[in-house]
Structures are given as structure tokens and as C-alpha cells.
Amino acid sequence: MTPARIPGARTAPVIALDVMSGDAGAEVAITAADIAAERYPTLHFRLHGQEQVMAPVLARLPRLAARATMVHTDDVVLMTDKPSQALRRSRTSSMGMAIDSVKQGEADAAVSAGNTGALMAMALFALRTMPGIDRPALAALLPTLKNDSVVLDLGANTECDAENLVQFAVMGAAFARTVLGLERPRVALLNIGEEELKGTDEIKDAAAVLRSADLPMQFTGFVEGDKIGQGDVDVVVTDGFSGNIALKTAEGTGKLVVGLLTAAFKSSLLAQIGYLLSRPALSALRAHLDPNAHNGAVFLGLNGLVVKSHGSANARGIANAIGVAHDLIRDGVSAKISHDLASMRAHRPDAIAAAK
Amino acid sequence: MTPARIPGARTAPVIALDVMSGDAGAEVAITAADIAAERYPTLHFRLHGQEQVMAPVLARLPRLAARATMVHTDDVVLMTDKPSQALRRSRTSSMGMAIDSVKQGEADAAVSAGNTGALMAMALFALRTMPGIDRPALAALLPTLKNDSVVLDLGANTECDAENLVQFAVMGAAFARTVLGLERPRVALLNIGEEELKGTDEIKDAAAVLRSADLPMQFTGFVEGDKIGQGDVDVVVTDGFSGNIALKTAEGTGKLVVGLLTAAFKSSLLAQIGYLLSRPALSALRAHLDPNAHNGAVFLGLNGLVVKSHGSANARGIANAIGVAHDLIRDGVSAKISHDLASMRAHRPDAIAAAK
What CA–CA distance (Å, rounded) separates A214 from B205? Predict the structure, then answer.
């Protein structure tokens, strides 16, 4: 492993993994790294956490051990810590040190399953936003009837103005071009109706800018919550409050339906036999909806990649979050976002004021 | 049918049905009234719409005809009309005339499957808000793993302040006491985290008031989107933007899962046989999630009852919306809301200022 400070100059990508902060514990996080090491043969790791906890696990995983460096710390950010408390431990905690590895050029991306607010605060403080970005946004993939869709912001910014939403659209489109491999992703603003007069002023102003901007995306206007699952839009743009509500309500409804389905299959002997016959087909359905399969939300808009794993993800889930980081490094998503932002600003230096 | 202007003085409840404004058409709306007439033997109807369309349908439905009066108009509010356009036709359109029937004391509740924005604008203009209520809220029942939950506001108010949210909580609790038959419903504010420091200032201020208020409810703090489906909260309070996003995302996710399930059952011969054996059990699941079974959102906080049916509801769905109106009339929900509001104001005349 030869760390380099020039982006793209390193031959082997390095992930800084915060091993300690998730609900599942260090062993699960290290197992996840081993799964990812198998999937991505060039990937290297910096494992941030307590050496006495990590060493025995690593001793059992020779494939990972050959490509991992342990960076010891005893300090862990708790799920209940406030962002302000966490910030004070930027230099001592496993989370803060993983982010610092990215800042120092020792890693290409940080991955953590810890406290979202703390991760956001530390990442923003250490890495700062890209030129042209006021606030980073948390983006993730959501399953739909067709391909996955990108949804952002998922909770990094409780309130957003029109300019924030426009920036999120640009970042989300660049993310979709990378992760979903789309040339001109279809981008829409989440709203409570599809007509132009619906929604808040922020949303209407952002729509006016996006309609007139010359960007590598297809802006399709507004999308309502019930249409997200249809997969007719590739990027759903919203403020962090609504995005978080939408993501979690979708998760909760998925669980509700699966819960009702399980009860239905147990309700009679015939239904139980029916379940046994349909089980292989239903397993595919479960896999399609499995949150672990869609794990890995990304803070977009920072000078460095930070990926957030679900706090309760299992080893396969965390390995998927590492996979998201791997793909973003490989495809140079940060450079794409910078380029699209610069291009929009060159064409529309004062887009929002002009659209008003 | 003997209309009376004194609330509660009429022996038989009367529904003013806007027959013309839904997507499904007049025949479906009148069939819905006939289904409701069978379910509720004391219910009477004022049918607002084109007599030449209504009369032939009514001629085939003697049970309904015996308890219905036709009120003729040619004017219909379209789904694409702006609220301001609709307002100008308050006296001429079937929607406006149905609301006016409530205002004039000729009916106890209006039911319409038309344009939500137009219905809200007309209802607010004609009926005005109750003393102590600044803005009406749209409330409905959502299926959960346990009992149904009340969710409000579902889109009547795009932006809300803390005082609005507190009023919605009071109205939602009174609604739950009536419709769900609960003594002290559990009420929570929809938020992006359960910790006290999460969310917007409006939500935090509203929580402070509700924590200290002496009301016939159990305020349980914040609830996240993924917990709505668990049914651990009876009333979910939110602004109209987030509420609409949550409701529609839940609907869309339900459809997504059912779509994936249908595909799974068709994916192999064994799965098809499995489906046939499980079908009775799965029908119960489908019924539990059927939007028609949960049809009927209520504008709470007006001096008169107005119930909104889903625009695409079928006859059974619209009959369920009429059923919601019937139950609200029977249980005197308007009086309960007034009482709870007066009681809160008596105890906390300046609750929000005090809590800050």
C-alpha cells in the first residue's frame, strides 16, 4: 500500500473503514471488509479501531490481513452522541480518524456504520464542500419496479433553499451517471403534485433553474411519492427532511407488507404449502427489497468520499457499502460532480435570480 | 328529509354528495351512495350534479331514490382547475353547492372525489375555521401491522408553524377518539429522528407545547417514517408537505411490493401452484392494504364536515368515504375538537410562547 496525495495517482484504491461505530460491532465490520476484499481484488484497507479487538479477527482472515493496515484508537463515537460532542473527538475517534485518512490522502474513501449526524459534522468539518456546493447531501439507491433510483438528500440538511436543491440535482445526476451507468439520467424534484403551481417556493424556483440549465441530465419536473417505486425517474431530489421521511416510510411499508405476508402464509395449512412451493420465487423478491442489498449512502459534494452504512447492516450490507465506495473511486464521481457544477455555473452564473 | 339548521337536531343525517367531480364519473358516485344507503339505513342524500345524468341511474336504484334529493347543476370543477378558478364557481359547481348545503344546514357533511386544492379552498371559504384553529388539516387512516393510524396533515398546508402542528395534534386526537374509539390516543410528531434535538424549530416548539399541555391524549414525542407501519402510534402529526410525501410513498411502496410479488408468483410453475393454494390468505392481505378500504380523508377544523374521497376510488371506495362522514356525524367529532381546543386554550393561553 503506497499512499499518494494526488487523486488518481494511487494504483490500488484504499478504504478507510471505521470498524467501531456500528451497532453490529467490530467483528461484523471486519468480516465485511474481508467480503469486499474478495469481491475487489485491488482494494486495500485502513482499519480504524481498537487493535486488541481487531487483531484476533484479522488473524483469522489472511486474505484481508494481507491488504489491511490497523490504525489503533480506543475512542468511539456513540450512536447517542450529539454532532457537537463528536466534533471534539475528530482526532481521537475511529470515525474521525477514518475521515482524516481521506483528508491526508492515505485513503480514497471513508466508510462508517456510525451515527449519521456525527459523521456528517466531522466529514464537513474535515473535508469541506467542493467549490460551488453550499451543503453536502446524503444520497442512496432505492429499489423500484425497474432499475434502482438515486434519492437525495436523505437527511443531511433539514431545510434547503432552491440553490441547495439545484446543487443536489447536479450531484445526484453525476452520481446516477456513475453508479447506474446512465448517460442522461431523468431527474425530478419530489413534490406533492405534478402541476407547476404545486409545492413550496424553494421547489418551484429550483424547477425553474433546472428547466433552463444546460446539464447532462433530463429534468422531468415534479414526481410524487407514489411514483418513486415505479422507477420512471432516475434521480429524486428533495430536502433532507422529506427525503428521510420518504426513505423511512418506504422501508417501513416494505416491512409492513412482508409482515402481513408472513402472517397470511401462516394463516392456513394450504397457505403454508403454497408458501413452500413459492419459496424460491419469494426469496428473489426478498433479495430485491433487502435493505442490505441497497446499503451505502454517500455524502456528495465534499472534497473526499464518505460512505455511510446503515447502523444495523450485517457483514454483507457493510460489504455492499464498501462496494459503493469502490465504484465511486473507480469512476471518479467527485471529478464528474465538479465538472458538471463548473459547467452549469459557466452557463448560468446567476441562474436562480434569473429564473425568478 | 327535513333539513334543520341546529346541529344534532336532525333525526336523519344527510350527506351532500358531489356526484360529478371524481375521475370515475357520476354513475360510480351514485352507486356508492346506494351501497352506503344499504349500510346506513338512516342516511339521506343530496346529490349535486347534472339531473339528466343522475336521473336514469337513480331510476334503477329504488332504495337510494327513496332517500335522495337531486340538486341540479351543469357546472363541474375539473381536476386541472386551480383553486382560484374553482373559488369563482362556489355557487354554480357541484362541488361548491355540496359544500354550501352543509353551510346552509341542509346537509351534515359534504363528500367529494374531486380536485383536493379546489375542495380545500371552497370549504375554507364557505365554512371558515373553528375558533382556535388557524388552518384546517386533511386527515386519513393508514393501515399498520396493528390498528389503523390517523395521519394529518396530508397536503392541505404545504408549510406549517408550531402552532399549526399543535392544533393538528388536538384535532387528530379528537378524530382518533371518534373514529378509532380510543380514550387517550398516542400522538407523535413525524420527524427524522426520535431524539429531542432532531428536526426543524417548528417541530421542536410544537413538541414542547404538547409535552406540557393537559389534553385527552398521550403525547409520545417523535416518530420516524419507518415506524408508522408498526402501529405503535395512533396519531401521526406533520405538515402537509411531509404528510403527503409519506402517504404517497407508502402507497407507492405497497404497489411496488404487490407488483414484485405478482411477478414472483408468475416466475415458475411451482410458484403459480403455490399462489393458487395461498390465494385465500393473500386476498385478506390485499384487502388489508386496499386503498379503497381506507378511503375518506377529512378536512378537520372547519365549521362543517367535508370528506375527500380519492379521485380514482371505485364505488366501494366512495361508499367508505361516505361511511367516514356518517361516523363523524354520529359521533359529533366537530364538537369534540372544539371542546379539546377550548380546554387547551384555557390551560395554556400562550402555550408556544411559554414553551420557547
Answer: 42
Residue A12 lies in a domain: yes
B125 touches chain A (CB under 8 A): no
* pLDDT tens by residue, B29-83: 999 999 999 999 999 999 999 999 999 999 999 999 999 999 999 999 998 888 8
If you measure CA to CA, which chain B residue comes closest to A275?
Answer: B274
pLDDT of residue B350: 54
Range(s) of the domain holding residue A345 = 135-297+333-356
Residues 6+ apart with CB under 8 A from B189: B165, B169, B199, B203, B206, B207, B210, B221, B222, B223, B237, B238
- pLDDT value, residue A281: 77
Beta bridge partners of A139: A152, A298
CB pairs A-B closer than 8 Å: 207
Determine, for residues A280 and B271 on separate chains, whether the beta-carbon distance falls below 8 Å. Answer: yes
Name every chain B residue with its beta carbon within 8 A of the beta carbon of A279: 274
Q: What is the CA radius of gyration of chain B?
A: 21
Q: How far apart are CA B250 and CA B243, in angstroms?
A: 11
8 Å CB contact of B264 and A256: no
Residue A165 falls within a domain, yes or no?
yes
B303 found inside a domain: no
Domain check: are A221 and A242 in the same one? Answer: yes
Q: Are B274 and A264 in contact (CB under 8 A)?
A: no
CA B71/CA B92 separation, integer angstroms = 11
Evaluate if residue A2 carries a pLDDT over 60.
no
- Cell numbers at B198, concatenated: 432532531
ipTM: 0.82
Whether residues B225 and A249 touch (CB distance < 8 A) is answered with yes
Q: Is A284 on the interface with B (CB under 8 A)?
A: yes
Task: Tell me if chain B has a CB within 8 Å of the CB of A253.
Answer: yes
Asked whether A177 and A328 are in contact (CB, 8 A), the reply is no
Q: How far is A288 from chain B (nearest CA, A)?
A: 9
Please tell me whether residues B155 and B270 are part of one structural domain. yes
Q: How many domains does chain B have?
A: 2
Instruction: Examine residue A302 and state whether it is found in any structural domain, yes or no.
Output: no
- Inspect the interface and report whether the beta carbons of B264 and A244 lie closer than 8 Å: no
Residues 258-277 of B with CB under 8 A from A: 258-261, 263-265, 267-268, 270-271, 273-277
Degrees, nearest 5: CA angle A288-A268-B234: 65
pTM of the complete model: 0.85
